TrEMBL record:
It comes from Orchesella dallaii. Its EC number is 3.2.1.20. InterPro entries: GH, GH13_cat_dom, O16G_dom_2. SUPFAM superfamilies: (Trans)glycosidases. This is alpha-glucosidase.
Length: 622
Protein backbone atom coordinates (compact mmCIF):
# COMPACT_ATOMS: atom_id res chain seq x y z
CA UNK A 1 0.00 0.00 0.00
CA UNK A 2 1.62 3.29 -1.05
CA UNK A 3 0.77 6.51 0.69
CA UNK A 4 1.81 9.31 -1.63
CA UNK A 5 1.98 12.73 -0.09
CA UNK A 6 2.38 15.86 -2.07
CA UNK A 7 3.80 18.98 -0.50
CA UNK A 8 1.95 22.26 -0.14
CA UNK A 9 -0.22 23.40 -2.97
CA UNK A 10 1.04 26.54 -4.62
CA UNK A 11 -1.83 28.88 -5.03
CA UNK A 12 -2.20 32.18 -6.76
CA UNK A 13 -5.23 34.31 -7.08
CA UNK A 14 -6.45 35.26 -10.54
CA UNK A 15 -3.24 33.74 -11.83
CA UNK A 16 -2.37 34.11 -15.48
CA UNK A 17 0.49 31.69 -15.19
CA UNK A 18 -1.61 28.77 -16.40
CA UNK A 19 -2.35 27.65 -19.91
CA UNK A 20 -5.20 29.51 -21.54
CA UNK A 21 -6.81 26.35 -22.86
CA UNK A 22 -7.35 25.15 -19.33
CA UNK A 23 -9.32 28.36 -18.70
CA UNK A 24 -8.23 28.32 -15.13
CA UNK A 25 -7.99 31.25 -12.79
CA UNK A 26 -7.44 31.80 -9.12
CA UNK A 27 -6.10 28.35 -8.38
CA UNK A 28 -2.77 27.01 -9.48
CA UNK A 29 -2.39 23.65 -7.86
CA UNK A 30 0.94 23.15 -9.54
CA UNK A 31 -0.18 21.34 -12.66
CA UNK A 32 3.38 20.50 -13.62
CA UNK A 33 4.20 19.07 -10.21
CA UNK A 34 1.08 16.95 -10.39
CA UNK A 35 1.81 15.48 -13.79
CA UNK A 36 5.45 14.77 -12.89
CA UNK A 37 4.25 12.88 -9.89
CA UNK A 38 1.63 11.14 -11.98
CA UNK A 39 4.19 9.77 -14.37
CA UNK A 40 6.66 8.62 -11.74
CA UNK A 41 4.07 6.75 -9.78
CA UNK A 42 2.10 5.28 -12.65
CA UNK A 43 2.74 1.78 -11.49
CA UNK A 44 2.34 2.40 -7.81
CA UNK A 45 -0.84 1.27 -6.21
CA UNK A 46 -2.54 4.40 -4.93
CA UNK A 47 -4.71 3.57 -1.97
CA UNK A 48 -5.73 5.29 1.23
CA UNK A 49 -8.39 4.74 3.82
CA UNK A 50 -10.02 7.13 6.25
CA UNK A 51 -12.29 6.53 9.20
CA UNK A 52 -15.76 8.05 9.03
CA UNK A 53 -15.97 11.79 9.71
CA UNK A 54 -19.07 12.02 11.88
CA UNK A 55 -21.16 13.75 9.23
CA UNK A 56 -24.46 12.90 10.78
CA UNK A 57 -24.42 14.92 13.96
CA UNK A 58 -24.63 18.55 12.74
CA UNK A 59 -26.75 20.04 9.98
CA UNK A 60 -23.89 21.76 8.18
CA UNK A 61 -21.67 18.69 8.08
CA UNK A 62 -23.86 16.71 5.74
CA UNK A 63 -25.43 19.49 3.75
CA UNK A 64 -25.05 20.41 0.10
CA UNK A 65 -24.47 24.14 -0.14
CA UNK A 66 -25.78 25.59 -3.39
CA UNK A 67 -24.18 28.87 -4.38
CA UNK A 68 -26.75 31.22 -5.87
CA UNK A 69 -25.08 33.99 -7.85
CA UNK A 70 -28.03 36.27 -7.23
CA UNK A 71 -27.70 38.44 -10.37
CA UNK A 72 -27.87 35.40 -12.61
CA UNK A 73 -30.32 33.03 -10.99
CA UNK A 74 -33.87 34.14 -11.72
CA UNK A 75 -35.24 37.54 -12.66
CA UNK A 76 -38.75 38.04 -11.24
CA UNK A 77 -39.28 41.64 -12.39
CA UNK A 78 -37.83 41.49 -15.89
CA UNK A 79 -35.04 44.02 -15.56
CA UNK A 80 -32.49 41.49 -16.82
CA UNK A 81 -31.01 40.93 -13.35
CA UNK A 82 -31.78 38.12 -10.91
CA UNK A 83 -33.37 39.05 -7.57
CA UNK A 84 -34.55 37.82 -4.18
CA UNK A 85 -38.14 37.24 -5.25
CA UNK A 86 -36.76 35.18 -8.09
CA UNK A 87 -34.95 32.93 -5.64
CA UNK A 88 -38.09 32.59 -3.53
CA UNK A 89 -40.09 31.58 -6.61
CA UNK A 90 -37.60 28.82 -7.27
CA UNK A 91 -37.35 27.31 -3.79
CA UNK A 92 -39.19 24.18 -4.87
CA UNK A 93 -36.46 23.56 -7.40
CA UNK A 94 -33.97 23.10 -4.58
CA UNK A 95 -36.32 20.81 -2.74
CA UNK A 96 -36.66 18.71 -5.91
CA UNK A 97 -32.88 18.42 -6.01
CA UNK A 98 -32.65 17.60 -2.30
CA UNK A 99 -30.72 20.78 -1.50
CA UNK A 100 -31.31 22.42 1.86
CA UNK A 101 -28.70 25.15 2.11
CA UNK A 102 -28.25 28.23 -0.06
CA UNK A 103 -25.31 30.61 -0.09
CA UNK A 104 -26.30 33.93 -1.65
CA UNK A 105 -23.69 36.18 -3.20
CA UNK A 106 -23.87 39.79 -1.93
CA UNK A 107 -27.28 41.40 -2.34
CA UNK A 108 -26.43 44.55 -0.35
CA UNK A 109 -26.54 48.08 -1.79
CA UNK A 110 -23.61 48.48 -4.14
CA UNK A 111 -22.47 50.54 -7.13
CA UNK A 112 -21.81 47.06 -8.67
CA UNK A 113 -18.26 47.72 -9.77
CA UNK A 114 -17.45 44.18 -8.57
CA UNK A 115 -21.08 43.08 -8.84
CA UNK A 116 -21.98 43.37 -5.19
CA UNK A 117 -18.59 42.71 -3.62
CA UNK A 118 -18.23 46.51 -3.37
CA UNK A 119 -20.74 47.24 -0.63
CA UNK A 120 -21.99 50.73 0.18
CA UNK A 121 -24.30 49.65 3.02
CA UNK A 122 -23.78 46.35 4.84
CA UNK A 123 -27.21 46.21 6.43
CA UNK A 124 -29.60 46.75 3.56
CA UNK A 125 -30.69 45.32 0.23
CA UNK A 126 -29.84 46.77 -3.16
CA UNK A 127 -33.04 47.84 -4.97
CA UNK A 128 -31.88 45.80 -7.97
CA UNK A 129 -32.42 42.69 -5.87
CA UNK A 130 -35.53 43.82 -3.96
CA UNK A 131 -35.93 45.23 -0.46
CA UNK A 132 -35.71 44.16 3.16
CA UNK A 133 -39.26 42.81 3.12
CA UNK A 134 -38.38 40.60 0.18
CA UNK A 135 -35.38 39.35 2.10
CA UNK A 136 -37.40 38.58 5.21
CA UNK A 137 -40.04 36.86 3.13
CA UNK A 138 -37.44 34.73 1.39
CA UNK A 139 -35.94 33.75 4.71
CA UNK A 140 -39.35 32.87 6.13
CA UNK A 141 -40.22 30.73 3.13
CA UNK A 142 -36.87 28.98 3.44
CA UNK A 143 -37.45 28.29 7.13
CA UNK A 144 -40.89 26.91 6.29
CA UNK A 145 -39.16 24.48 3.98
CA UNK A 146 -36.52 23.72 6.60
CA UNK A 147 -33.80 25.29 4.51
CA UNK A 148 -30.69 27.15 5.71
CA UNK A 149 -29.42 30.47 4.44
CA UNK A 150 -25.76 31.51 4.31
CA UNK A 151 -24.89 35.09 3.40
CA UNK A 152 -21.72 36.42 1.82
CA UNK A 153 -19.89 38.52 4.39
CA UNK A 154 -17.29 40.87 2.88
CA UNK A 155 -15.29 42.46 5.70
CA UNK A 156 -12.06 43.21 3.83
CA UNK A 157 -13.31 46.24 1.95
CA UNK A 158 -16.26 48.52 1.27
CA UNK A 159 -17.30 50.46 -1.80
CA UNK A 160 -15.74 53.88 -2.19
CA UNK A 161 -19.36 55.07 -2.04
CA UNK A 162 -19.80 53.83 1.53
CA UNK A 163 -20.42 56.69 4.01
CA UNK A 164 -17.46 55.52 6.10
CA UNK A 165 -15.10 56.02 3.19
CA UNK A 166 -16.51 59.41 2.28
CA UNK A 167 -15.99 60.56 5.86
CA UNK A 168 -12.58 58.98 6.06
CA UNK A 169 -11.50 60.97 3.00
CA UNK A 170 -12.51 64.11 4.92
CA UNK A 171 -10.65 62.88 8.03
CA UNK A 172 -13.86 62.97 10.03
CA UNK A 173 -13.77 61.08 13.30
CA UNK A 174 -14.25 58.30 14.11
CA UNK A 175 -13.82 57.33 10.43
CA UNK A 176 -10.43 58.93 9.80
CA UNK A 177 -8.59 55.59 10.33
CA UNK A 178 -11.25 53.22 9.07
CA UNK A 179 -9.21 52.57 5.93
CA UNK A 180 -5.56 51.89 5.13
CA UNK A 181 -4.20 55.35 4.28
CA UNK A 182 -0.56 56.01 3.52
CA UNK A 183 1.39 59.05 2.38
CA UNK A 184 3.23 58.93 -0.96
CA UNK A 185 6.66 57.34 -0.92
CA UNK A 186 8.12 60.34 -2.72
CA UNK A 187 7.02 63.25 -4.88
CA UNK A 188 8.86 63.65 -8.17
CA UNK A 189 10.26 66.93 -9.49
CA UNK A 190 6.82 67.88 -10.79
CA UNK A 191 5.23 67.24 -7.44
CA UNK A 192 3.67 63.98 -8.64
CA UNK A 193 3.20 61.43 -5.82
CA UNK A 194 4.32 57.81 -6.08
CA UNK A 195 2.67 54.86 -4.26
CA UNK A 196 3.97 53.82 -0.83
CA UNK A 197 5.19 50.41 -2.05
CA UNK A 198 4.95 47.81 -4.84
CA UNK A 199 1.75 46.08 -3.72
CA UNK A 200 -0.49 45.01 -6.59
CA UNK A 201 -4.25 44.61 -6.70
CA UNK A 202 -5.71 41.14 -7.33
CA UNK A 203 -7.37 42.75 -10.34
CA UNK A 204 -4.05 44.08 -11.68
CA UNK A 205 -2.17 47.36 -11.33
CA UNK A 206 -1.09 49.14 -8.17
CA UNK A 207 -3.07 48.38 -5.01
CA UNK A 208 -2.80 52.07 -4.12
CA UNK A 209 -4.85 54.99 -5.43
CA UNK A 210 -4.11 58.60 -4.61
CA UNK A 211 -6.89 60.67 -3.13
CA UNK A 212 -6.54 64.35 -4.01
CA UNK A 213 -8.67 65.56 -1.11
CA UNK A 214 -6.82 63.71 1.62
CA UNK A 215 -3.47 63.91 -0.20
CA UNK A 216 -2.79 60.30 0.65
CA UNK A 217 -2.99 56.90 -0.97
CA UNK A 218 -5.59 54.37 0.08
CA UNK A 219 -5.10 50.63 -0.21
CA UNK A 220 -7.37 48.46 -2.34
CA UNK A 221 -6.47 44.83 -2.78
CA UNK A 222 -9.21 44.50 -5.39
CA UNK A 223 -10.72 47.27 -7.60
CA UNK A 224 -9.84 50.88 -6.82
CA UNK A 225 -13.50 51.38 -5.95
CA UNK A 226 -13.08 48.80 -3.14
CA UNK A 227 -10.94 50.47 -0.45
CA UNK A 228 -9.56 48.07 2.16
CA UNK A 229 -10.78 48.56 5.71
CA UNK A 230 -8.17 48.99 8.42
CA UNK A 231 -8.49 45.99 10.72
CA UNK A 232 -5.81 47.35 13.03
CA UNK A 233 -8.52 49.76 14.17
CA UNK A 234 -10.73 48.06 16.82
CA UNK A 235 -13.66 50.22 15.76
CA UNK A 236 -13.63 48.54 12.37
CA UNK A 237 -13.76 45.08 13.93
CA UNK A 238 -16.70 46.22 16.03
CA UNK A 239 -18.49 47.60 12.95
CA UNK A 240 -18.17 44.21 11.30
CA UNK A 241 -19.41 42.41 14.37
CA UNK A 242 -22.44 44.70 14.31
CA UNK A 243 -23.04 43.71 10.70
CA UNK A 244 -22.96 40.03 11.63
CA UNK A 245 -25.31 40.63 14.57
CA UNK A 246 -27.75 42.40 12.29
CA UNK A 247 -28.13 39.46 9.93
CA UNK A 248 -27.93 36.78 12.61
CA UNK A 249 -30.73 38.45 14.49
CA UNK A 250 -32.84 38.25 11.35
CA UNK A 251 -32.21 34.51 11.41
CA UNK A 252 -29.54 33.69 8.84
CA UNK A 253 -27.61 30.48 9.44
CA UNK A 254 -24.11 31.68 8.79
CA UNK A 255 -21.63 33.41 6.53
CA UNK A 256 -19.23 32.75 3.75
CA UNK A 257 -16.39 35.07 4.71
CA UNK A 258 -14.99 36.66 1.55
CA UNK A 259 -11.29 37.16 0.86
CA UNK A 260 -10.26 36.20 4.42
CA UNK A 261 -6.45 36.24 3.94
CA UNK A 262 -6.59 39.83 2.68
CA UNK A 263 -7.96 41.29 5.90
CA UNK A 264 -4.58 42.36 7.33
CA UNK A 265 -1.38 43.51 5.67
CA UNK A 266 2.18 43.98 6.84
CA UNK A 267 2.42 46.65 9.52
CA UNK A 268 5.69 47.91 8.09
CA UNK A 269 4.33 48.07 4.53
CA UNK A 270 7.30 46.15 3.11
CA UNK A 271 7.49 45.50 -0.65
CA UNK A 272 6.33 42.08 -1.81
CA UNK A 273 9.14 40.00 -3.37
CA UNK A 274 8.86 38.79 -6.95
CA UNK A 275 7.15 35.41 -7.39
CA UNK A 276 8.92 32.41 -8.92
CA UNK A 277 7.19 32.29 -12.27
CA UNK A 278 6.85 29.25 -14.45
CA UNK A 279 9.11 29.15 -17.46
CA UNK A 280 7.56 30.89 -20.44
CA UNK A 281 5.02 32.66 -18.23
CA UNK A 282 3.28 35.56 -19.86
CA UNK A 283 2.87 37.23 -16.48
CA UNK A 284 3.37 41.00 -16.50
CA UNK A 285 4.79 43.17 -13.76
CA UNK A 286 1.39 44.73 -13.12
CA UNK A 287 -0.25 41.33 -12.65
CA UNK A 288 -1.02 40.17 -9.14
CA UNK A 289 0.73 36.84 -9.65
CA UNK A 290 4.00 38.49 -10.72
CA UNK A 291 4.55 39.08 -7.00
CA UNK A 292 4.59 36.79 -4.01
CA UNK A 293 1.98 38.41 -1.74
CA UNK A 294 3.78 37.62 1.51
CA UNK A 295 3.14 41.09 2.93
CA UNK A 296 -0.46 41.49 1.75
CA UNK A 297 -1.88 38.04 2.32
CA UNK A 298 -2.37 36.07 5.50
CA UNK A 299 -0.45 38.47 7.75
CA UNK A 300 0.02 37.60 11.43
CA UNK A 301 -3.00 38.65 13.47
CA UNK A 302 -5.62 37.53 10.96
CA UNK A 303 -6.59 34.51 13.00
CA UNK A 304 -7.42 36.71 16.00
CA UNK A 305 -9.79 38.77 13.90
CA UNK A 306 -11.41 35.67 12.45
CA UNK A 307 -11.76 34.30 15.97
CA UNK A 308 -13.76 37.36 16.98
CA UNK A 309 -16.09 36.65 14.03
CA UNK A 310 -16.38 33.01 15.08
CA UNK A 311 -17.26 34.10 18.61
CA UNK A 312 -20.19 36.09 17.27
CA UNK A 313 -21.53 32.98 15.52
CA UNK A 314 -21.04 30.92 18.66
CA UNK A 315 -22.87 33.42 20.85
CA UNK A 316 -25.85 33.26 18.54
CA UNK A 317 -25.63 29.48 18.30
CA UNK A 318 -25.84 29.23 22.07
CA UNK A 319 -28.51 31.87 22.44
CA UNK A 320 -30.87 30.16 20.04
CA UNK A 321 -29.62 26.59 20.25
CA UNK A 322 -29.13 26.44 16.51
CA UNK A 323 -25.69 26.34 15.02
CA UNK A 324 -24.56 29.34 12.92
CA UNK A 325 -21.58 28.65 10.72
CA UNK A 326 -18.58 30.52 9.39
CA UNK A 327 -16.92 29.39 6.17
CA UNK A 328 -13.77 31.19 5.05
CA UNK A 329 -12.64 31.82 1.50
CA UNK A 330 -8.88 31.80 1.11
CA UNK A 331 -6.67 30.68 -1.76
CA UNK A 332 -3.69 29.63 0.34
CA UNK A 333 -1.24 26.74 0.56
CA UNK A 334 -2.77 23.89 2.57
CA UNK A 335 -0.80 24.26 5.81
CA UNK A 336 -1.86 27.92 6.07
CA UNK A 337 -5.40 27.12 5.07
CA UNK A 338 -5.69 24.53 7.81
CA UNK A 339 -4.82 27.19 10.40
CA UNK A 340 -8.15 28.82 9.59
CA UNK A 341 -9.84 25.91 11.34
CA UNK A 342 -8.21 26.99 14.61
CA UNK A 343 -7.84 24.27 17.20
CA UNK A 344 -10.28 21.82 18.69
CA UNK A 345 -10.57 23.93 21.85
CA UNK A 346 -10.50 27.27 19.99
CA UNK A 347 -12.08 26.66 16.64
CA UNK A 348 -12.20 29.46 14.04
CA UNK A 349 -13.85 28.58 10.73
CA UNK A 350 -16.40 25.77 10.72
CA UNK A 351 -14.69 25.14 7.47
CA UNK A 352 -12.17 26.68 5.25
CA UNK A 353 -13.16 26.22 1.61
CA UNK A 354 -11.37 23.34 -0.06
CA UNK A 355 -10.35 24.39 -3.57
CA UNK A 356 -8.25 21.32 -4.36
CA UNK A 357 -10.67 19.91 -6.95
CA UNK A 358 -10.69 23.29 -8.69
CA UNK A 359 -7.02 22.75 -9.41
CA UNK A 360 -7.70 19.85 -11.80
CA UNK A 361 -7.04 20.70 -15.43
CA UNK A 362 -8.04 19.31 -18.83
CA UNK A 363 -6.78 15.77 -19.39
CA UNK A 364 -6.20 15.25 -15.69
CA UNK A 365 -5.74 11.64 -14.65
CA UNK A 366 -7.39 9.61 -11.92
CA UNK A 367 -4.17 9.91 -9.95
CA UNK A 368 -4.37 13.71 -10.09
CA UNK A 369 -7.85 13.56 -8.57
CA UNK A 370 -6.62 11.02 -6.02
CA UNK A 371 -3.84 13.40 -5.07
CA UNK A 372 -6.15 16.41 -4.79
CA UNK A 373 -8.52 14.49 -2.56
CA UNK A 374 -6.06 12.75 -0.28
CA UNK A 375 -3.76 15.78 0.02
CA UNK A 376 -6.69 17.66 1.56
CA UNK A 377 -7.83 14.81 3.78
CA UNK A 378 -4.30 14.22 5.03
CA UNK A 379 -3.86 17.88 5.94
CA UNK A 380 -7.24 18.19 7.63
CA UNK A 381 -7.09 18.11 11.43
CA UNK A 382 -8.72 15.01 12.86
CA UNK A 383 -11.61 16.86 14.50
CA UNK A 384 -12.62 18.81 11.38
CA UNK A 385 -15.17 17.98 8.71
CA UNK A 386 -14.07 17.85 5.04
CA UNK A 387 -15.66 20.02 2.35
CA UNK A 388 -15.45 19.91 -1.44
CA UNK A 389 -16.07 22.44 -4.14
CA UNK A 390 -16.02 22.00 -7.91
CA UNK A 391 -16.98 25.50 -8.97
CA UNK A 392 -17.78 29.02 -7.90
CA UNK A 393 -18.38 32.47 -9.36
CA UNK A 394 -14.63 33.07 -9.74
CA UNK A 395 -13.79 29.83 -11.55
CA UNK A 396 -14.44 28.40 -15.01
CA UNK A 397 -17.17 25.77 -15.05
CA UNK A 398 -16.38 22.03 -15.06
CA UNK A 399 -17.66 21.52 -18.61
CA UNK A 400 -15.36 24.26 -19.88
CA UNK A 401 -12.32 23.47 -17.83
CA UNK A 402 -12.35 19.66 -17.77
CA UNK A 403 -14.72 18.82 -20.63
CA UNK A 404 -18.41 17.97 -20.86
CA UNK A 405 -17.64 14.30 -20.33
CA UNK A 406 -16.37 15.09 -16.83
CA UNK A 407 -19.56 16.74 -15.51
CA UNK A 408 -21.17 13.66 -13.94
CA UNK A 409 -17.84 12.23 -12.84
CA UNK A 410 -17.04 15.39 -10.89
CA UNK A 411 -20.51 15.46 -9.34
CA UNK A 412 -20.09 11.83 -8.23
CA UNK A 413 -16.84 12.71 -6.52
CA UNK A 414 -18.16 15.96 -5.05
CA UNK A 415 -21.34 14.49 -3.63
CA UNK A 416 -20.20 11.08 -2.43
CA UNK A 417 -16.95 11.88 -0.65
CA UNK A 418 -17.60 12.48 3.04
CA UNK A 419 -18.40 16.03 4.17
CA UNK A 420 -19.94 19.24 2.88
CA UNK A 421 -20.41 19.58 -0.88
CA UNK A 422 -20.59 23.01 -2.52
CA UNK A 423 -22.32 23.28 -5.88
CA UNK A 424 -22.19 26.42 -8.01
CA UNK A 425 -25.52 27.16 -9.68
CA UNK A 426 -25.94 25.41 -13.02
CA UNK A 427 -23.27 22.77 -12.37
CA UNK A 428 -26.09 20.30 -11.74
CA UNK A 429 -27.13 20.86 -15.37
CA UNK A 430 -23.63 20.83 -16.81
CA UNK A 431 -23.78 24.49 -17.83
CA UNK A 432 -20.75 25.75 -19.76
CA UNK A 433 -18.95 29.07 -19.65
CA UNK A 434 -20.49 31.50 -22.12
CA UNK A 435 -18.26 33.19 -24.70
CA UNK A 436 -18.17 36.89 -23.82
CA UNK A 437 -16.65 39.41 -26.22
CA UNK A 438 -14.42 42.24 -25.05
CA UNK A 439 -17.28 44.69 -25.69
CA UNK A 440 -19.61 42.61 -23.48
CA UNK A 441 -17.07 42.23 -20.69
CA UNK A 442 -18.31 43.44 -17.32
CA UNK A 443 -15.96 41.89 -14.78
CA UNK A 444 -13.37 44.38 -13.44
CA UNK A 445 -10.74 41.61 -13.44
CA UNK A 446 -11.32 41.21 -17.20
CA UNK A 447 -11.68 44.90 -17.99
CA UNK A 448 -8.42 45.78 -16.23
CA UNK A 449 -6.56 43.25 -18.37
CA UNK A 450 -7.51 44.95 -21.67
CA UNK A 451 -8.83 43.50 -24.94
CA UNK A 452 -5.79 41.28 -25.57
CA UNK A 453 -5.78 39.44 -22.25
CA UNK A 454 -9.28 39.80 -20.79
CA UNK A 455 -10.14 36.13 -21.39
CA UNK A 456 -7.39 35.08 -19.02
CA UNK A 457 -8.93 36.99 -16.15
CA UNK A 458 -12.61 37.65 -16.80
CA UNK A 459 -15.12 35.72 -14.68
CA UNK A 460 -18.12 36.74 -16.77
CA UNK A 461 -18.20 33.40 -18.63
CA UNK A 462 -19.23 31.41 -15.56
CA UNK A 463 -21.81 33.99 -14.48
CA UNK A 464 -24.20 33.77 -17.42
CA UNK A 465 -27.94 33.36 -16.71
CA UNK A 466 -29.24 30.15 -15.18
CA UNK A 467 -30.79 28.00 -17.90
CA UNK A 468 -34.34 27.14 -16.88
CA UNK A 469 -36.22 26.29 -20.07
CA UNK A 470 -36.64 27.21 -23.73
CA UNK A 471 -39.49 29.66 -23.25
CA UNK A 472 -37.44 32.65 -24.42
CA UNK A 473 -33.97 33.55 -25.62
CA UNK A 474 -32.66 34.00 -22.09
CA UNK A 475 -33.51 30.39 -21.21
CA UNK A 476 -36.44 31.40 -19.03
CA UNK A 477 -34.16 33.45 -16.76
CA UNK A 478 -35.81 36.76 -17.61
CA UNK A 479 -38.53 38.13 -19.86
CA UNK A 480 -36.55 41.31 -20.41
CA UNK A 481 -34.97 40.07 -23.63
CA UNK A 482 -31.64 41.53 -22.47
CA UNK A 483 -30.15 39.69 -19.52
CA UNK A 484 -27.19 41.44 -17.87
CA UNK A 485 -24.83 38.87 -19.42
CA UNK A 486 -25.55 36.87 -22.60
CA UNK A 487 -27.21 33.48 -22.22
CA UNK A 488 -25.28 30.45 -23.37
CA UNK A 489 -26.56 29.31 -26.75
CA UNK A 490 -26.54 25.69 -25.56
CA UNK A 491 -29.64 26.40 -23.46
CA UNK A 492 -31.86 24.55 -25.96
CA UNK A 493 -30.42 21.28 -24.64
CA UNK A 494 -28.92 22.30 -21.32
CA UNK A 495 -31.81 23.54 -19.18
CA UNK A 496 -33.74 22.48 -16.11
CA UNK A 497 -36.98 21.60 -17.86
CA UNK A 498 -35.49 19.39 -20.58
CA UNK A 499 -33.14 17.71 -18.15
CA UNK A 500 -35.95 16.89 -15.75
CA UNK A 501 -38.01 15.51 -18.62
CA UNK A 502 -35.30 13.39 -20.13
CA UNK A 503 -34.67 9.94 -18.71
CA UNK A 504 -30.97 10.42 -18.44
CA UNK A 505 -29.41 13.82 -17.86
CA UNK A 506 -26.83 15.53 -15.71
CA UNK A 507 -29.65 16.86 -13.55
CA UNK A 508 -31.17 13.41 -13.04
CA UNK A 509 -27.79 12.00 -12.10
CA UNK A 510 -27.12 14.91 -9.76
CA UNK A 511 -30.45 14.43 -7.99
CA UNK A 512 -29.82 10.70 -7.55
CA UNK A 513 -26.41 11.41 -6.08
CA UNK A 514 -27.80 13.94 -3.60
CA UNK A 515 -30.39 11.43 -2.42
CA UNK A 516 -27.64 8.90 -1.66
CA UNK A 517 -26.32 11.29 0.99
CA UNK A 518 -29.19 10.18 3.22
CA UNK A 519 -27.96 6.56 3.24
CA UNK A 520 -26.12 5.16 6.23
CA UNK A 521 -23.24 4.28 3.93
CA UNK A 522 -22.77 7.95 3.10
CA UNK A 523 -23.52 9.37 6.53
CA UNK A 524 -21.42 6.96 8.58
CA UNK A 525 -19.25 5.16 6.06
CA UNK A 526 -15.47 4.90 6.14
CA UNK A 527 -13.70 5.95 2.97
CA UNK A 528 -11.37 3.68 0.99
CA UNK A 529 -10.05 5.40 -2.14
CA UNK A 530 -7.93 3.81 -4.85
CA UNK A 531 -6.60 4.34 -8.34
CA UNK A 532 -7.05 1.17 -10.37
CA UNK A 533 -6.58 -0.03 -13.96
CA UNK A 534 -3.10 1.28 -14.54
CA UNK A 535 -3.90 4.77 -13.34
CA UNK A 536 -7.10 5.30 -15.26
CA UNK A 537 -9.90 4.69 -12.75
CA UNK A 538 -10.55 6.57 -9.52
CA UNK A 539 -12.60 4.31 -7.28
CA UNK A 540 -13.82 4.61 -3.76
CA UNK A 541 -16.11 2.85 -1.33
CA UNK A 542 -18.09 4.24 1.57
CA UNK A 543 -18.85 1.40 3.95
CA UNK A 544 -20.79 1.45 7.19
CA UNK A 545 -20.09 -1.87 8.83
CA UNK A 546 -22.71 -1.35 11.52
CA UNK A 547 -25.62 -1.09 9.14
CA UNK A 548 -24.01 -3.26 6.51
CA UNK A 549 -24.55 -0.61 3.82
CA UNK A 550 -21.98 0.17 1.18
CA UNK A 551 -21.55 2.49 -1.82
CA UNK A 552 -19.02 2.04 -4.60
CA UNK A 553 -18.03 4.86 -6.97
CA UNK A 554 -15.92 4.03 -10.04
CA UNK A 555 -14.92 6.79 -12.44
CA UNK A 556 -12.82 6.32 -15.56
CA UNK A 557 -10.68 9.39 -16.27
CA UNK A 558 -9.11 7.88 -19.40
CA UNK A 559 -10.71 7.98 -22.83
CA UNK A 560 -10.51 4.18 -23.21
CA UNK A 561 -12.98 1.50 -22.24
CA UNK A 562 -11.93 -0.56 -19.29
CA UNK A 563 -13.16 -3.26 -16.93
CA UNK A 564 -12.33 -2.76 -13.27
CA UNK A 565 -11.90 -5.53 -10.76
CA UNK A 566 -13.21 -3.96 -7.55
CA UNK A 567 -12.78 -7.04 -5.39
CA UNK A 568 -9.63 -5.39 -4.05
CA UNK A 569 -11.87 -3.39 -1.73
CA UNK A 570 -12.50 -4.84 1.70
CA UNK A 571 -15.97 -6.05 2.62
CA UNK A 572 -17.41 -5.99 -0.91
CA UNK A 573 -19.49 -9.01 -1.95
CA UNK A 574 -17.78 -11.13 -4.55
CA UNK A 575 -20.78 -12.99 -5.94
CA UNK A 576 -21.98 -12.08 -9.41
CA UNK A 577 -24.40 -9.19 -9.75
CA UNK A 578 -24.16 -8.28 -6.07
CA UNK A 579 -24.05 -4.54 -6.78
CA UNK A 580 -27.13 -2.49 -7.57
CA UNK A 581 -26.47 0.37 -9.99
CA UNK A 582 -27.92 3.62 -8.62
CA UNK A 583 -26.37 6.32 -10.80
CA UNK A 584 -24.48 6.41 -14.09
CA UNK A 585 -22.81 9.11 -16.15
CA UNK A 586 -24.37 9.98 -19.50
CA UNK A 587 -21.58 8.22 -21.39
CA UNK A 588 -22.03 4.82 -19.80
CA UNK A 589 -23.67 2.26 -22.05
CA UNK A 590 -23.34 -0.91 -19.96
CA UNK A 591 -25.68 -0.15 -17.10
CA UNK A 592 -28.83 1.73 -16.25
CA UNK A 593 -30.13 2.71 -12.85
CA UNK A 594 -31.61 -0.46 -11.41
CA UNK A 595 -29.38 -2.89 -13.28
CA UNK A 596 -26.90 -5.04 -11.43
CA UNK A 597 -23.14 -5.22 -11.66
CA UNK A 598 -20.39 -7.54 -10.46
CA UNK A 599 -17.47 -6.33 -8.40
CA UNK A 600 -15.15 -8.60 -10.35
CA UNK A 601 -15.85 -6.72 -13.49
CA UNK A 602 -17.26 -3.19 -13.41
CA UNK A 603 -17.49 -2.12 -17.05
CA UNK A 604 -16.74 1.48 -17.94
CA UNK A 605 -16.63 3.41 -21.20
CA UNK A 606 -13.99 6.11 -21.57
CA UNK A 607 -14.71 9.09 -19.33
CA UNK A 608 -17.65 7.46 -17.62
CA UNK A 609 -18.60 6.44 -14.12
CA UNK A 610 -21.00 4.36 -12.10
CA UNK A 611 -22.29 4.35 -8.53
CA UNK A 612 -23.51 1.11 -6.96
CA UNK A 613 -25.08 0.20 -3.65
CA UNK A 614 -24.39 -3.10 -1.98
CA UNK A 615 -24.73 -5.02 1.24
CA UNK A 616 -21.48 -5.54 3.01
CA UNK A 617 -20.15 -9.08 2.87
CA UNK A 618 -21.05 -10.70 6.14
CA UNK A 619 -18.26 -11.89 8.43
CA UNK A 620 -19.54 -15.44 8.06
CA UNK A 621 -19.12 -15.53 4.29
CA UNK A 622 -15.50 -14.28 4.34
C1 LIG B 1 -13.70 37.17 -3.44
C2 LIG B 1 -14.92 36.97 -4.32
C3 LIG B 1 -14.69 37.66 -5.63
C4 LIG B 1 -14.52 39.13 -5.38
C5 LIG B 1 -13.38 39.36 -4.39
C6 LIG B 1 -13.39 40.78 -3.89
O1 LIG B 1 -12.58 36.53 -3.96
O2 LIG B 1 -15.17 35.60 -4.47
O3 LIG B 1 -15.76 37.46 -6.53
O4 LIG B 1 -14.23 39.79 -6.59
O5 LIG B 1 -13.50 38.54 -3.25
O6 LIG B 1 -14.47 40.98 -3.03
Amino acid sequence: MAFVNISATSVSQFSDTVAEDSKQRHVDTSASTTSEITSTRKNLSLQKSYKAFECANKWWKNTVIYEVYVRSFYDSNNDGIGDLKGIEEKLDYFKQLGIDTLWLTPMYPSPMVDFGYDISDFVNIDPLFGNMDDFKKLLRSMKDKEMKLILDFVPNHTSDQHEWFKMSVLRQEPYQDYYVWRSPKVYDGNGQPSPPNNWRSVFGGSAWTYNETRKQYFLHQFAKEQPDLNFRNPLVIQEMINVMDFWLELGVDGFRLDAAPHILEDEEFRDNPQAKLKEGSDCKEDDYSFWDPVFTCNSPGILDILTSFRNVCDEWSLKEAKERVLMTEGYLPLPQLMEYYGTCSNPIAHFSFNFELLGLTKNCQASDAFTSITRWLDALPQWCCPNWQTGNHDQPRIATKLGEDMIDIMNMILLLLPGVAVTYYGEELGMKNTEISWEQTKDPAGKNAGPGRYKLFSRDGERSPMQWDVSNSSAGFSDSGIPWLPTNTNYLEVNVKSEFESERSHLQTYTRLVSLRKSKAWLNGDLDIRVLCDGSVLTFTRIDITSGEGILVATNFSKNKTDVDCRVFQHVPTEENAALVVAVTDLLEYYNEGSSASFANIRLNGRSGVVCKFSVKSEASK
